[in-house]
């Protein structure tokens, strides 16, 4: 097995992603049954693995941690830091901590026996009322065998083949200081998703089990990697082509349609000033003018999106400054609106440089789409945990339509689920650029309720 050691961390670029981002990925990613974590430090390993276990417990699964390099006391400490009540979970049977060698190597290296053990574990979980089994295993156990790494990978491929048929989600953990370049490259072949630099990534070099098991697998795998590299290049070219087309469409929307609508608006205003029209006709003209203004405003937002969405700079920003700017802008734009703000903690958050625009859009959305006179909005700030700042924007209602919420949270619009404008999309984009999350809590009350969670950085 290739066990060459890295010369420090200089080969690895810095990342702004944190374990909090990984937690967010867990909640919004359709996870593969078989993932691999590649890490550089044991602190990173334990934080990610503990977050993985915590998410599994929170979603109704029994969790099994297979330890090797780390002793059980250190693993329990990491789990408690992630919010897991270890003693209660172990006592209830929700959490099982075992030595990986006892599970995998008790009777020698026996791939079929190992698969059978995991299968029985999954079946036992379901019988006990769990949704399935989550496994986090330190793969350094394989250094205690006298078999080659290729044999270990044969086991990984076999597990990869049966995993989709089982209620299991497994996180294999690879220490990059122990597994060298060749071993890491081979490990990539057997995992459709990987966790690297606190991100869940689709693996372009994944080899399906049926391909991996072919007799000429080495050549077929190499060809597959080349084909995948080609496919990625073609995908990038297609993205460039689509972006070029979108730029043309955006220019037309911004400029041509906006100019034409200004002409229409001028005609409607002239008609409205005609003393010969009656009240009903004047009301119809007012409605038409309102629609024209709404389309012009949307075109302006589309222009703002194209001009700024890529120009992002995430940095430490005082929370009070963001909220003050957003509230002041709302007061200027909607002087009849009343915005109440709770006490703001004296802290900073990780923020996109335009996050105040996201807060502005959230408040504006609450003002525009309610029936109260004058419109009222409450902005409440809290700190549900040491590393999270929560901003809740509430108004008397009506609540944001389900179709609009699902479209924004799902990340794409369909014929059945579409939003009414760009405001909530701006909120989503700028919040996610800041590594935060947007949600719409269902309180069971007839109210508008939008929630933003941001990373606290001091």
Characterize the structure shown.
The chain is α/β, with parallel strands linked by helices. The protein folds into three domains: 19-213, P-loop containing nucleotide triphosphate hydrolases (Rossmann fold), CATH 3.40.50.300; 232-308; 314-455, 2-Layer Sandwich (Heat Shock Protein 90). 50% of the residues lie in helices and 18% in strands. It has 15 helices and 14 strands. The protein has helices at residues 19-28, 42-58, 72-81, 86-92, 100-104, 111-127, 149-162, 181-189, 209-212, 217-272, 279-308, 319-333, 355-368, 402-410, 423-433, and strands at residues 34-39, 62-67, 95-99, 133-138, 168-175, 193-196, 199-202, 314-318, 338-341, 348-352, 376-385, 388-395, 437-439, 448-455. The strands form three sheets. A seven-stranded mixed beta sheet has the order 3-2-4-5-1-6-7, with helices on both faces. α7 (149-162) links the parallel β4 and β5. α1 (19-28) packs parallel to α2 (42-58), α2 crosses α3 and α12 crosses α13. The longest helix is centred in the middle third of the chain and has 56 residues, at 217-272. The radius of gyration is 27 Å and the shape is elongated. The two termini are 44 Å apart. Mean pLDDT is 80; it is low at 1-14, 217-222 and 413-419. InterPro entries: 2C_sensor_his_kinase, HATPase_C_sf, HATPase_dom, His_kinase_dom, MEDS_domain. It holds the Pfam family MEDS. It catalyses: ATP + protein L-histidine = ADP + protein N-phospho-L-histidine.
């Amino acid at each position: 097995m290739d066990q060459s050691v890295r010369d420090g961390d200089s080969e690895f670029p810095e990342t702004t992603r944190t374990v909090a981002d990984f937690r967010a990925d867990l909640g919004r990613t359709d996870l593969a049954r078989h993932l691999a974590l590649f890490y550089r430090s044991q602190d990173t390993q334990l934080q990610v693995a503990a977050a993985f276990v915590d998410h599994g417990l929170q979603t109704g699964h029994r969790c099994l941690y297979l330890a090797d390099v780390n002793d059980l006391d250190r693993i329990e400490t990491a789990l408690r830091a992630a919010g897991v009540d270890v003693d209660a979970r172990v006592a209830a049977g929700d959490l099982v901590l075992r030595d990986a060698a006892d599970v995998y190597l008790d009777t020698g290296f026996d791939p079929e026996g190992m698969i059978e053990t995991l299968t029985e574990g999954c079946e036992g979980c379901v019988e006990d009322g769990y949704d399935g089994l989550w496994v986090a295993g330190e793969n350094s156990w394989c250094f205690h065998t006298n078999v080659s790494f290729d044999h270990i990978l044969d086991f990984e491929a076999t597990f990869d083949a049966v995993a989709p048929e089982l209620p299991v989600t497994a996180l294999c953990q690879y220490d990059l200081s122990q597994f060298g370049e060749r071993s890491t490259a081979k490990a990539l072949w057997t995992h459709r998703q990987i966790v690297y630099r606190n991100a869940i990534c689709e693996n372009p070099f994944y080899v399906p089990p049926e391909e991996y098991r072919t007799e000429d697998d080495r050549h077929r795998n190499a060809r597959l990697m080349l084909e995948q590299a080609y496919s990625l290049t073609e995908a990038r070219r297609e993205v460039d082509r689509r972006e070029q087309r979108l730029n043309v469409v955006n220019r037309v929307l911004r400029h041509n349609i906006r100019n034409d609508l200004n002409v229409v608006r001028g005609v409607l205003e002239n008609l409205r000033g005609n003393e010969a029209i009656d009240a009903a006709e004047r009301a119809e003209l007012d409605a038409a003018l309102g629609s024209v203004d709404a389309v012009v405003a949307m075109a302006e937002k589309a222009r703002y999106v194209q001009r700024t969405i890529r120009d992002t700079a995430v940095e430490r920003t005082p929370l009070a400054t963001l909220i003050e700017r957003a509230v002041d802008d709302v007061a200027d734009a909607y002087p009849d609106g009343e915005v109440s703000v709770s006490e703001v903690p004296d802290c900073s958050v990780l923020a996109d440089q335009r996050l105040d625009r996201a807060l502005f859009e959230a408040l504006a959305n609450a003002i525009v789409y309610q029936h109260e006179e004058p419109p009222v909005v409450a902005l409440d700030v809290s700190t549900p945990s040491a590393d999270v700042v929560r901003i809740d924007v509430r108004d008397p209602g009506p609540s944001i339509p389900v179709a609009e919420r699902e479209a924004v949270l799902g990340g794409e619009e369909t014929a059945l689920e579409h939003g009414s404008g760009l405001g909530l999309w701006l909120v989503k984009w700028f919040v996610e650029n800041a590594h935060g999350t947007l949600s719409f809590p269902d309180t069971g009350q007839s109210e508008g309720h939008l929630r933003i969670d941001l990373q606290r950085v001091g």
